[in-house]
Amino acid sequence: MLTPVILCGGSGTRLWPLSRKGYPKQFVPLTGQESLFQATARRLSGPPFRPPLVVTAADFRFIAAGQLAEAGVTPGAILIEPEPRNTGPAVLAAALHALSGDPDALLLVAPSDHVIGRPAAFRAAVEAGIAAARAGRIVTFGAVPDRAETGYGWLEPAEAAGDAGHPAAVPLRRFVEKPRAALAAELLAGGRHLWNMGIFLARADALVAAFDSLAPDLGPPLRASLAGATRDLDFLRLASAPWGQVRAVSFDYAVMEQAADVAVVRCDAGWSDLGDWEAVAREVAAPRAGVTAIDCDEATLLRADGPGLHVVGLGLRGIVAVAMPDAVLVADRARAQDVRLAVERLRERGVAQADALPRVHRPWGWYETLVAGERFQVKRILVAPGGILSLQSHVHRAEHWVVVTGTVRVTIGDRTDLLTENQSAYIPLGTVHRLENPGRVPAVLIEVQTGAYLAEDDIRRFEDAYARGSGE
Predict the structure, then answer these.
(1) Which of 75, 227, 255, 346 could form a disulfide with 354 if both were Cys (CB 3.0 to 4.6 A apart)?
(2) CA distance 312 to 213
(3) Which of 210, 240, 272 marks a domain boundary?
């Protein structure tokens, strides 16, 4: 049996404005109805896989747990990183955790934000690498290239790694860093090299031994962080003090590029890392809802994400245009990998849209601001079935709730009532209150806030079903 390790703590910027720090691309339905994270969890479930081990950031723990539940996947554990430290520490923490429960654990480490178009071929490649992994080698997987890509790292097998129908694990001669265009064309023409998929198969003890040999400084603080880990509802929160001593380093740099006994398996499975809008455009060929293209070439990507939005393109050539309720990106498709530069500029200017989305996700559901002005703010709130907001009060604002759909239980002071569609409640400033959804369908409310200060940190919590801190 294999234990999948799903890494979903990253927050890349190349798919802005859809992917942002508060809700990154792995949780977004980029190419279909489910998120990339959900698609990954489904792909790595069922025989021969055990329940997945998920490593994520504290800010994403409820999003990850909620999306797993929606996908019908029960995790073996969800480890919470106190701070981002790249993939190296995440992989080592997962390996140490798995090893503590099973000395023979076999791990398949995978990012949560990639797309694999042919899951059966992917599983065949994984099965082809099991024997080498059980023998103590670290196995990596190489996608079959179809273009001279400069945005990926490449792999050079020491010999032919099988063919499309018969993948095989063979020694890896070397990693090739992201090449310039001329070298990429040469690698493609040679027909031997593969794209580095960033997916690895190995015994947990082999991974730990590799880290201890090649990146020995990571072991002591990570072992201390795992030893001091605490249970937080259904999560395992790694201890923050020793974790803070861990250097940030990728798994490739810390281990894979230095390891001597690495094998590679050819994986002809329709893989993409969806690393920028150029990659998304290649995966999503059909026109999306909310888009009208008139005399635009095939290299133009138009996308509208948000209710009531519609994007119209007229006579465009090689353009990416992505519209959201609070931000719009218009870029030359050839500059897709430079979108991160735009995010950096927005951050320098203090523009909230650089990192924050208008819809804010919480463990009980979500809210979004519809309109805001001096001393007032209007929000739409969705409370999921069984969702419970904290018992709280506000120092600077009063609130008025109007139920749009569903049924909610409202506690205001010493009184508790059930409210249904078109009913409302008023919460005076300073009054202790709570909102929950006892029903089986989502409840939607409109909230009107009035007061001198309307920021989210004006919350005093008395009880919270999700054990959150003041800033969550």
Answers:
(1) 346
(2) 56
(3) 272
pLDDT value for 472: 59
Q: Do 368 and 292 have their domain in common?
A: no
For the cut 90, the answer to whether the pLDDT of residue 187 exceeds it is yes
Are residues 169 and 314 both part of a single domain? no
CATH number reported for the structural domain that contains residue 68 in this entry:
3.90.550.10
Residue type for position 187: L
In a domain, 468, yes or no: no
- 243 shares a domain with 94: yes
- What is the C-alpha to C-alpha distance for residues 221 and 85, in angstroms, rounded to an integer? 12
In the predicted structure, residue 291 carries a pLDDT above the cut 80: yes
Quick check: is 472 in a domain?
no
Q: Residue 10 — pLDDT band, cuts 50, 70, 90?
A: confident
Concatenating the DSSP letter of every residue in 83-120 gives: S---HHHHHHHHHHHHHHH-TT-EEEEEESS-EES-HH
Q: What is the pLDDT of residue 470?
A: 54
Nearest to 114 by CA among 333, 267, 217: 267
Report the CATH number at residue 392. Answer: 2.60.120.10
CB 16 within 8 A of CB 122: no
Indicate whether 194 and 264 sit together in one domain. Answer: yes
Amino acid found at 275: G
Cβ atoms 297, 318 nearer than 8 A: yes
> 245 and 291 share a domain?
no
Domain enclosing residue 243, as ranges: 3-272
For residue 416, which of 387, 436, 442 has the smallest C-alpha distance?
436
Q: What is the pTM of this model?
A: 0.91
pLDDT of res. 338: 92
Q: What pLDDT, in 10s, does the model give residues 386-427?
A: 999 999 999 999 999 999 999 999 999 999 999 999 999 999
Are residues 341 and 236 part of one domain?
no
Domain count, the chain: 3
8 Å CB contact between 98 and 107: yes
Which residues does residue 78 pair with via DSSP β-bridges, in sequence order? 54
**Which pLDDT band holds residue 66 (cuts at 50, 70, 90)?**
very high
SS3 96: helix
Q: CB-hemisphere CA count at 13 Å for 190?
A: 15
Is residue 27 domain-resident?
yes
User: What average pLDDT does range 313-325 have in this prediction?
Assistant: 95
DSSP, res 448: E
pLDDT tens sequence across 265-290: 999 999 999 989 988 988 876 667 89
The pLDDT tens digits for 30-61 are 888 899 999 999 999 998 999 999 999 998 99
Q: Do 152 and 197 have their domain in common?
A: yes
Query: Coil, strand, or helix at residue 120?
Result: helix
Q: What does the longest C-alpha to C-alpha distance in the chain come to?
A: 76
Of the residues 303, 320, 352, the one at which a domain ends = 352
And the tokens for 124? 């065949």
Confirm whether 470 is domain-assigned.
no
